[in-house]
Amino acid sequence: MKKLTAIVMGYGMRGQSYSSYAIDNPEKLEIVAVAEPEKSRRLYAQRRHNLSEDMLFDDWEKLAELPKMADFAIISTQDKMHLEPALACIEKGYDLLLEKPMAPTAEECKIIYEAAEKKGVKVVVCHVLRFTPFWYKLKELLDEGAIGEVRSIIHMENVGNMHYSHSYVRGNWRNTAESSAMILAKSCHDTDIVQWLLGKDCKKVQSFGSYSVFTKENQPKGAPDRCLDGCPYMDSCLYNPVKFYVEDKENGWRDTVADKVDATDEEITEALRTGPYGRCVYACDNDVVDHQVVNMEFDGGATVSFTMSAFNKGGRFIRIFGTKGEIVASHANSEITVCPFGKPNYVAEIDKIGESITSGHGGGDTGIMVDSVKYFNNEQPSKSVCDLRTSYLNHLICFAAEKSRAEDSVVDLDKFSESV
Ligand SMILES: NC(=O)c1ccc[n+]([C@@H]2O[C@H](COP(=O)([O-])OP(=O)(O)OC[C@H]3O[C@@H](n4cnc5c(N)ncnc54)[C@H](O)[C@@H]3O)[C@@H](O)[C@H]2O)c1
After folding, report:
1. Which pLDDT belongs to residue 359?
2. Does residue 41 form part of some domain?
3. Which atom of ligand 1 is nearest to the CA of 38?
4. Ligand 1 and 367: CB distance under 6 A
5. Do 273 and 408 reside in the same domain of the chain?
6. Is 30 domain-assigned?
7. Does 10 sit in the ligand 1 pocket, CB within 6 Å?
8. Which of 26, 111, 348, 371 is the most buried (most CB within 10 A)?
């Protein structure tokens, strides 16, 4: 296999994660340039990928205006900053590994989709679940007919209360206008995965959901808006940021809080005094839902009931009901039990893809790199890879769900798609 090269735009959590593949597999991938405004991350990229000064940029635009210098571009900037770099890279002829969501609005997603089609470049959207051994096994079981024809699915995304507090109350995805709706930011993985498992187009969507817990009305009496300003509830509060970010050294979000690589306890504490993560969880500008239900009807009549909830310890769970049996599975516990009618139940063995099961997102962060490098190299990737049209349509399910939630209506996907 020919070794590929890539450029990275946005060397934060996700950019660093995908780039690890080049460090672990230098014979397959080399990162040749990085654009990242935050200095410690830029220097980290320089050390990791042995980059010369002229291959480091403090803004994606400076890198995008140069002649094409690599096989593909990894776009891992924040949600609202996907459209412009994606279009610039498509125009230059780069294939793309594009972070999800493609963009915060259906119209922008369509613009990216059409531009890529016109230019003839390949785009893999980072729906990492498809690339995990767990979800891949489920897909294989369904395709083999292990439970006959699937008629319905109950799927749950348990976000986890601490994760929710970090990302959706205090953090980057807390406010719809500043980033995107919860269904898109968090659950576009879920609409994508159920569509992939079923292998059919979604036809109708209906959704309900709201938020009511992390609001000003629920702020305990006497609690200041910033936790370090002498909050009397620090010892008993579940969301005490000192315990969560400073004392818990295993917390992978420490660098996010201080907005730099290898942040010290002092830097994190200082960030808590002034930054978003030191705010009382009941005094933030959050407005994304803390629970949501999405009902979907697919071509052929199969139905899916999806629930996202903030109030749990985390993990995805799914029950799939087929004409010849049932599957009960927990991604959190990496367990798949197949219950064929008239036969004993059995536990399906989940294959490892190399060491990828241990990488981020249950192996998906490595899995997507393995497949994308093959795909961009014109080799046969696994069936986890889909074309951009499929990713675009799966994003539309989220936009339709948000429309349904806002308008209290059932949304016909074909009509909705025409209206975009
Ligand atoms: N696929 C997944 O499972 C998954 C998981 C988490 C986040 N995400 C998505 O990945 C994206 C990035 O998330 P993250 O957690 O890595 O965020 P992050 O904030 O850690 O990383 C984004 C980086 O972009 C950089 N940046 C800002 N302006 C820039 C510019 N002009 N040019 C170049 N870089 C610039 C920031 O400094 C930051 O380092 C988001 O869209 C997010 O929704 C996807």
Report:
1. 61
2. yes
3. 37
4. no
5. no
6. yes
7. yes
8. 371
Residue at 164 is within a domain: yes
pTM of the model: 0.95
Kindly state the greatest CA–CA separation across the chain: 66
Strand partners, 328: 319, 337
Q: Is 56 in the pocket of ligand 1 (CB under 6 A)?
A: no
Q: What are the CA-CA distances from residue 37 to residues 34, 60, 359 (Å)? A: 10, 9, 26
Ligand 1 pocket, 361 CB below 6 A? yes
- 269 and 303 assigned to the same domain: no
CB contact burial 281-307 (16+ within 10 A = b; e otherwise):
bbbbebbbbbbbbbbbbbeeebbbebb
pLDDT tens-digit series, residues 296-320: 999 999 999 999 999 999 999 999 9
Which of 66, 76, 108 best tests ligand 1's pocket when mutated (most atoms within 8 Å of CB)?
76
Question: For position 172, which CATH number holds?
Answer: 3.30.360.10
Asked if residue 330 belongs to a domain, the reply is no
State whether 160 and 119 are in the same domain.
no
In terms of residue numbers, what domain contains 158? 150-211+287-322+388-419
